Please model this.
Amino acid sequence: MSPPETLILGTRGSRLALTQSETCADKLRRKGLNVEVRVVRTTSDHLPETPLSVIDRRDVFTRQLDEALLAREIDLAIHSLKDVPTELPAGIVLAAISERHDPSDALVSEDGWDVDGLPGGATVATGSLRRRAQLLHRRPDLRIVEIRGNVETRVRKMREGDADAIVLARAGLERLGLDGEIPHAVLAADVVLPAVGQGFLAAATLEDHPSRDAVREALNDGAGERAALAERAMLRALEGGCRVPVGALGVFADGEIHLKGLVASPDGALMYEGEARGPEPDEVGGRLARDLLGQGAGIVLAEIQEVRST
Model:
């Protein structure tokens, strides 16, 4: 099968998703490929008011794009890697993982508070159990509430009084050009450890797609990919999806991956943390997961799953 004359790149329809996809499309075009960007609505778009923490679907952001790939309606899909399940549908692969933007979370407020500077009992909005758990671990007095919507919608809701602060991925602010416009404090990894894959983009294709190698050549970052694969190996071994309170941060340097990870209870009362080093992503991620499970993290993950299944 010969490569198509024009690659159809599928994406979600938010401004951030489109910005990310256009960035990737431009890189592909600079390699001589013709690319057309096409919007595909996902489960998250169809359930705009449902809290992510109660949608027991690991593919909430990716399912319809996967279906479009399998139906050959699109040639590749661009995702935020943190939204991609560790187990992909049969026949689909991650052809490329981008260079990483800042993986940190950002605490957005009109006064630019950091976590310790938030007023007592302040209301912080986030749809992430991981962020909720780590914020409550450090500041159990905070009131954490659910929020949905794209970056602009969440900022607007905060400014309208729904919350004193919200938590966003700093990479999203950077990609939208809002990093210098919206007051925020960057949350260090020892305050809030990022989500698995946060800051990376991923290009998914069919395993046998004729343009898979060209997509990889244009978009893949080797060092970033090794760090990302270690983080995802840890999450896979924990049997956790994208919607569980698991954080990780991998760095590949000097031929070795340094991986930090944690599992927290949703109320922040329990926190299991560990680190692992080594050259092979799957081995490092699996070893760290076993360490966390050995500490007792499996109890937290089992309780979350039990609550969702009732």
